[in-house]
Amino acid sequence: MTAIHISNVQKRYQSLQALGGVSLSIEEGEFFGLLGPNGAGKTTLISIIAGLIRADAGSVSIHGHDVVTDFRAARRKLGVVPQELVFDPFFTVRETLRLQSGYFGLPNNDKWIDEVMENLDLTNKADTNMRALSGGMKRRVLVAQALVHKPPVIVLDEPTAGVDVELRQTLWKFISRLNREGHTIVLTTHYLEEAQAMCKRVAMMKLGKVVALDTMSSLIRRISGSQLIVHLKAGDLPPDLQHLVLHAETGSQLSTLGRKYSLKVNEYMEVETILARLRESGAVIDEMQLQQADLEDIFLEITGTGAPQ
Ligand SMILES: Nc1ncnc2c1ncn2[C@@H]1O[C@H](COP(=O)(O)OP(=O)(O)OP(=O)(O)O)[C@@H](O)[C@H]1O
């Protein structure tokens, strides 16, 4: 079954086209990543999925329920962890979670609330007022709040932005478990290595459009091969190797003198050729390293920008 079906969604803010016709289907049980640089439209798309804002055109359904015409049924299937921390400061953690359960018509939900709190290391804060919690703890409550009604589809918008390593690990352990148990997970994150580790399939967005949609493994294969990083302490890269340059750092960008290049290498044999050409041209290598391409390189190649901030 399709968990989220997005069909030609468009959204404009005055003269700005935030989403220019996004179509995407996410199947039940997937662990899906939504990536893109700042302003790509990820939060706008998530807000439309959550029924918080209306698309100008197109449609979104969750487990077959349209988010506009069948809002309540769609909302029941969905748990959203938003980017921003918004709470009523006068309630305790447990009260906050009970209220949220009530909103979904689940008055006797304490067993699951306890389990969620336990899994997010919130148990000893259950009776603490929201206003007395640290930012990281508040973020845990946001996650717990999204899960109170055991939604089959869970959308997390930058859940680990600015949180410590401990919370990231706790969160990923719990989210992975929910995914293994069949929940569909959709994630946006600033941390590409996190997306690479967790997501099986990703969509990359840029300026309101999906510019790449593939499994993580084919995306990684797309930028085939590796990169050879060479730090030259004398001489420079000969012109006939310039076409291989992925990144270059020179002079003041480096803590040491010289020039540093990342070169695209498709086969290991090519390393030999590159080294021979450098030697012939009089360049002197200070350090070198061979690295597998990762999601960051692909992101750079596809969106033309650095990692999302
Ligand atoms: N309420 C709004 N009014 C006007 N413009 C908006 C509004 N919300 C978003 N935008 C604009 O729409 C575009 C898409 O924003 P959106 O927040 O969806 O991007 P994003 O991919 O989530 O970015 P980020 O990674 O920074 O969160 C941006 O150019 C943003 O400035």
From TrEMBL:
ABC transporter domain sequence ranges: 4-232
Database matches in InterPro entries: AAA+_ATPase, ABC_transporter-like_ATP-bd, ABC_transporter-like_CS, ABC_transporter_ATP-binding, P-loop_NTPase
An example molecular function term from Gene Ontology annotations: ATP hydrolysis activity
Source species, domain of life: Bacteria
UniProt cross-references to Pfam families, sorted A to Z: ABC_tran
Source species of the chain: Pseudoduganella lutea
Entry keyword set: ATP-binding, Cell membrane, Membrane, Nucleotide-binding, Transport
Protein name: ABC transporter ATP-binding protein
